[in-house]
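Help wanted!
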Amino acid sequence: MAPLPRAFFDRPVLEVAPDLLGVVVEHRGEEGVVAVRLTEVEAYDGEADPGSHAFRGRTPRNAVMFGPPGHVYVYFTYGMHWCMNVVCGPEGRAGAVLLRAGQVVVGEPVALGRRTTSKSPRDLARGPARLTVALGIDGGYDGVDALDPRSALRILSGDRVGPDGGAPGTNGTVRSGPRVGVSGDGAGRPWRFWLDGEPSVSSYRPAVARRRAPSGRLSP
DNA sequence: CGGCCGATCCACT
DNA sequence: GTGGATCGGCCGA
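Answered by r_m:
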């Protein structure tokens, strides 16, 4: 599998996102190599997109989104989960594609060792936080250039990997729909893309406002 | 399988 | 102080 050219990512994020389906993300970690063939992604279109972390401008957390394409933006959420994006161009537009799900095609035993709660191989990278765990990615990878051959984390052309994990094959039909967990004005945009019929695609969950535990101190 | 809910903590207002 | 680009356990159908 060949590395993808920088120009692949230096395009509007809505063009890049569907093209990432079938592409392979590989991490060479301490415990071994794990590679995931992407089956589901979401586009976040910079400061014009209310659903984007860059919507309110640049902050320390989202700074990588404003940088060059091909680097990864990794963020922490819900107090315990890491999620990974790939930054897309054009420059000056903080676009990024959230990697939501994929099929583990290399290093399944290693991924199983990390994903202790996973009960079946298809659940290993079914969901954005599961995917980062399976690959062994956390906040330490924020800003890494995934197109640099020296990086432990790399994005590779998946055109030699089929749905069975080995033989060349087609990627199948690309479908699209609303993004998962996005509320407010950005909710209606059909910027989630997935491969039809893939078992590793995560189930759709609409955004819900959640109650908070009563902020009770113990009674005096 | 689908719905509900708690966990857990950080970024931003 | 508020709520989140989520997950897994538990329950009922």
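OP: Thanks! One thing I noticed: Residues 160-169, 214-220 of chain A have pLDDT under 50 and may be disordered.
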